[in-house]
Amino acid sequence: MKPQTGLDPFDMQFDADDEFAPQPDEAWRAAPALSPRASSDPFADFPPAHDLDIREPTSREPRREAPHPVADPRQELRDFDGGDPLADDLHQPAPPPRYEPINNPVHDLIADAEAAFGETTLPRITIHVFCTTPETADLAERAAADRRMERAVVVVRMGGLAQACEIYQNQPTPSLVMVESGDPAPQLIAQLDRLAEVCDPGTKVVVVGAANDIALYRELMRRGVSEYMVPPLSPLQMVRTVTSLYADPSAPFVGRQIAFCGAKGGAGASTIAHNVAHSITERLQTGAVLVDLDLAFGTAGLDFNQDPLQGVADALNQPDRLDQVLMDRMMARCTERLSLFAAPATLDQDYDISAEAYEEVTQKIRSAAPFVVLDLPHVWNAWTRKILLSSDDLVIVATPDLASLRNAKNMVDLVRRARPNDAPPRLVLNQVGVPGRPEIPVKDFGEALGLTPSLSLPWDPKLFGQAANNGQMLSEVGPKARATEGLDYLAQQIARREPPPTQKASLFSGLFKRK
């Protein structure tokens, strides 16, 4: 591959023989011709949007090593004893290259945008990873344990790109092959050509290389490589790279799922969940669905003064029939942007519902709004565990006492083990400062869990009691109260959004109002 120099920026690279020649079915057999869109769209060569530390084609540059500290020349003269001061340096091996993370504001923006919405899981596929370094192999193993890849079968092997070419001589290739190579560009492309000869149609290939080179990146994309990554990498970057390759453009929209659970009964998780959902819709002005999963004793209907004829129990009893039309009929409209899936809150029947039904229903509800707030009951079974570990955000509500500390510790440890690549759960301390009650200090509570509490709500029985009895939210009863401001702040942190700016009234606006 010869580097191209002196390119004409107005050259569309249009060749009739290439443009209208029949393309083979296998993208790996030959490099596809450049389309006219590549010259008119400045972002045509960009890789899929995900959180990677490689630079985009318009901003790629060779990686620069950190400069070595310069020694004091006076100290060198004092240490000089008549020999060659460079003799020792000539016999010492060159230090290995250091890979420093690249701060790219474009990638930070993309990561924040992806984090603001829900993330889908990978379909049932097989992934083979061929590594050349133990660090990459460990990275792949940690990525395979991520919750988003629970349906995929991941096999990690050593040997890199050369080993992949040898193995697939006698066996079929899986859905996705991820290969690592530290060879220069000519050898890398030659080995990829060998791999193309044994790859089955439909197999996707991701290359992990060492050269951060725009010319190499474009050549790999022309040859049908799905993605090219360079270190430093993280497990979450690898997961997002794989999931982006199998994203279905025709799939329904997936909202962000936030689960609220109490460390013990009476901690106030339901009240906080309802007020956060209301703040997301009314203060941040975005759509949300509140789902009350406490089927027997749910209070969402009371808090919003709603008594719908149908609710989440009807959806759970027949999850296969739930579609968008039936979902709209079952949900109660609390405000213009907030919908409620209320619980029946009756003891007329036993709610023996499988974990698969809960998973199917919650997954379908996520297509109804950008944010889905789940109010979980204080029980522990298969479906609550599944929802806790599969939610995009988890909020644990506790009171400053020993029982809450023990239960919250168990929940945090479980989540950290099961979701090593996700952010830790958020901790909210409620009912802080009850007169006459001994309490664990907020700082000690957080240190015991290894978390900094996201919010500490003071004891305010008058405000909370009045809102509950009236079927109103805290912002409607006391918009200037400390608890209301704290819940608005928590909603902003969860939604990763700022409230829209308020329009200032003109000095003359009151003169033209109709009386």
Molecular structure report:
The chain has 515 residues and is of the alpha/beta class. The protein is 37% helix and 13% strand. It has 21 helices and 13 strands. Strands 8-9-7-10-6-11-12-13 form an eight-stranded mixed β-sheet, with helices on both faces. α17 (402-418) links the parallel β11 and β12 (426-432). The model is unreliable at 1-12 and 14-117 (pLDDT under 50).
Fold topology:
Layout: H1 16-19, H2 37-40, H3 73-79, H4 87-91, H5 105-115, E1 126-131, H6 134-144, E2 153-158, H7 160-167, E3 176-180, H8 185-198, E4 204-208, H9 214-222, E5 227-229, H10 235-245, E6 256-262, H11 269-282, E7 288-292, H12 300-303, H13 312-317, H14 324-330, E8 332-333, E9 338-341, H15 355-365, E10 371-375, H16 382-390, E11 393-398, H17 402-418, E12 426-432, H18 442-449, E13 455-458, H19 461-470, H20 474-477, H21 482-495
Parallel strand pairs: 1-2, 1-3, 3-4, 4-5, 6-10, 6-11, 7-9, 7-10, 11-12, 12-13
Antiparallel strand pairs: 8-9
Instruction: Report Rg.
Output: 29 Å
Relative strand content? 5-15%
Structural class: alpha/beta
The biggest sheet amounts to: 8 strands, mixed
Question: What is the arithmetic mean of pLDDT?
Answer: 80
Helix content: 25-40%
What is the β-strand count? 13
What's the oligomerization state?
single chain
The end-to-end distance, rounded to whole angstroms, is 78 Å
- Assign an overall shape: elongated
Strand order of the largest sheet: 8-9-7-10-6-11-12-13
Low-confidence stretches: 1-12, 14-117
Count of DSSP-assigned helices: 21
